[in-house]
Amino acid sequence: MNKDLYFKYQWRYKKEDLKFCPRCGHHFSLEDLHISNQPQLLCHNCEFVFYIDPKLVVVAVVLNKEENKVLLLQRNEEPGKGLWAFPGGHVERGHDLFETIQSEVREETGLSVAVKGIIDTDSIASDGVVQLTYRAIAHHEEIIINMESQQGRFFALDQIPWDALAFPSTKKILQLIAKE
Ligand SMILES: [Zn+2]
Predict the structure, then answer these.
(1) 40: CA distance to ligand 1 center in Å?
(2) Whole-angstrom Cα distance, residue 162 to residue 150?
(3) Ligand 1 center to residue 43 CA distance, Å?
(4) Separation of 28 CA from ligand 1 center, angstroms?
(5) Which of 33, 44, 80, 107 can pair with 40 through a Cys bridge, CB separation 3.0 to 4.6 Å?
(6) Quick one: what percent of the chain has pLDDT higher than 70?
(7) What phi, psi does 27 have (nearest 5°)?
(8) Is residue 116 a contact partner of residue 137, using CB atoms and an 8 Å limit?
(9) Ligand 1: centre distance to CA 25 (Å)
(10) How far apart are CA 86 and CA 91, in angstroms?
(11) Which is it for strands 40-42 and 49-50: parallel, antiparallel or unpaired?
(12) Is 105:60 a contact under the CB 8 Å cutoff?
């Protein structure tokens, strides 16, 4: 593999960006199929319909063993560079949801976690995203960050940096946690 090649993952594509049928290479046309004003990508050559599914995102609310501190990462990338957010990532087709949560947390923090119950579900239609947020318990508190973060910290629930959170969903989820 050529390690000099770096492709930016761009998931905010629209139906209009997709020009050609992946089966036969014929031009797609956008036409109403089931619901009016919600056109689908149709190939009139091979009759393939290409449904663009939302991207599935998992977010981990990682708590320490005593469950009185929550892990936040200070982002080193836009959007929200310098602000605090939870670890998480996209679930690729064919990958297990819970293994994805564990591997994303391990990659971003060095922590191994046990994934517990679901905390929140959300859909951000404009971004084409469905987000599932799970509670996870860390086996220890030593964090080894990667390039995606400036630092990582376990915050006591009364020390959450409310004015420096990266996303509206970060705040919403922390409010849910703080209420418990
Ligand atoms: Zn086709």
Answers:
(1) 13
(2) 18
(3) 5
(4) 8
(5) 33
(6) 94
(7) -65, 135
(8) yes
(9) 6
(10) 16
(11) antiparallel
(12) yes
Give residue-wise pLDDT tens across range 19-58. 999 999 999 999 998 888 889 999 999 999 999 889 999 9
Using CB atoms within 10 Å of the CB of residue 79, give its burial: 0 to 12 exposed, 13 to 18 middle, 19+ buried.
Answer: exposed
Residue 18: how many CB atoms within 10 A of its CB? 14
pLDDT tier for residue 3 given thresholds of 50, 70 and 90: low
Around 179, how many Cα atoms within 13 Å sit in the side-chain half-sphere?
Answer: 7
Q: Which residues pair with 20 in a beta bridge?
A: 27
Q: What is the DSSP letter of 146?
A: -
Set out the domains of the chain in order of their start, with CATH numbers: 12-52 (2.20.70), 55-179 (3.90.79.10)
In three state form, how does the secondary structure of 3-63 look? CCCCCCCCCCCCHHHCCECCCCCCECEEECCCCCCCCEEECCCCCCEECCCCEEEEEEEEE
> Half-sphere exposure (CA, 13 Å, Cβ side) for 34?
4
Report pTM: 0.84
Separation of alpha carbons 60 and 106, rounded Å: 11
CA distance 162 to 180: 17
- The alpha carbon of 4 is separated from its chain's Cα centroid by a whole number of angstroms, namely 26
